[in-house]
Write a structure and sequence with these properties.
Chain lengths: 218, 218
């Protein structure tokens, strides 16, 4: 495949939102959508949207809008969610089990193949048809099953060690739920879901709004 | 309380990371930390860090660094995580149960008081000492128990409706796990954890890196 033109990180992070809204529109029988309509849905400005979509050829026609299906397919292709990924989860506690059970990921082509833990109480338990395996089996499993993505749902104290095992076994994509920043080589993609940080941020804005409210009432 | 000087959103979103690393340092017996050391840990530049921390008075002393405990306490105070929050969860499926079971939130003062669902199979089940209640009881429960934060873990089709019930019952902070953007009034704080978007982004960077790798090998 030819090397793509470089798309900025800011645009990349907006693509999933376009993808999601276009899917909703199609489900509701809407096949054409204007940048103004996308603006109303996403909260981005129409001019921002046109600029973003131009980045990869766009499909808008003046006065006619975008073909929702073509646009969504193209965004899916760019993000690489037009093909399937084999996923394993390390850490089969609450979050690990929740990720394994989340049906939406399967529909989008992210297929959880196995869960790993080192807690003897969890080993052998089945989560959505997958037996929880011993973390010692991780390297051989990855090698045999050509796993694409490793999800880290362990306590933060062991998350770096788990990441090292994953990458030394050939994993090039890590989805990290541990509340810490994992260090990986440049050729490994990593994305964090830092729930604590999101909750702290919510607390901040909650307090800010409530203080403003009190001030307004004075 | 006096109205704080306005801190930019970008700074706010870095505060949880400072807070987390300072906690790790303290746990390891480190009481003084320089902006250079914080830079190494967080990945932000030392000058960025000094600028951020100056925003709220800072505590750095030339050649001596920051007092880790004071700094962490102050950041905690600014974010409002120095006091307790009463939390309810709506949608007691995989994600809702995982959030309810996540011990880290309790330690930080976010106390889950109840879970709600409308699935008759879930009603009456107990999650971490809380019975799952019928969603019809939501408004009266919020009113009686002075709930601060509502967590939405429902399917996206009903998430806006749930948000409307929460806010009309007086909730001013919503933590949304449904893969959709919820609309709320200006005086309501909302934070999303859009796991799908994070996973799509991971897929993008995974593919980008793997294509670059192939190109390099040519």
């Amino acid at each position: 495949m030819a090397k793509r033109g470089k798309i900025s990180d800011a645009v990349i992070r907006r693509l999933p939102k376009y993808y999601r809204y276009l899917g909703d529109l199609l489900k509701n029988g809407v096949n054409r959508v204007s940048s103004n309509e996308l603006s109303r849905l996403t909260g981005f400005t129409a001019s921002q949207i046109r600029q973003d979509l131009n980045n990869f050829g766009g499909f808008g026609q003046q006065g006619y809008g975008y073909d929702a299906k073509n646009l969504r397919d193209e965004i899916g292709r760019i993000m690489g969610i037009d093909h399937k990924y084999k996923v394993i989860i390390v850490g089969a506690g609450n979050i690990g089990q929740a990720v394994a059970n989340y049906a939406g990921f399967y529909e989008e082509g992210f297929e959880v193949k196995a869960l790993f833990d080192k807690n003897p109480k969890l080993l052998g338990l089945r989560i959505r048809d997958h037996e929880i395996m011993d973390i010692d089996e991780l390297p051989s499993y990855i090698d045999e099953h050509h796993i694409d993505i490793g999800v880290i749902c362990t306590p933060k104290e062991v998350s770096q060690e788990v990441a090292d095992i994953l990458t030394s076994s050939g994993i090039k994509a890590i989805w990290n739920f541990a509340p810490t920043d994992i260090k990986v080589a440049d050729d490994v993609a990593i994305e964090d879901v830092h729930m604590n940080e999101s909750l702290y941020t919510l607390a901040y804005y909650y307090n800010e709004k409530s203080e403003n409210q009190k001030d307004d009432e004075k």
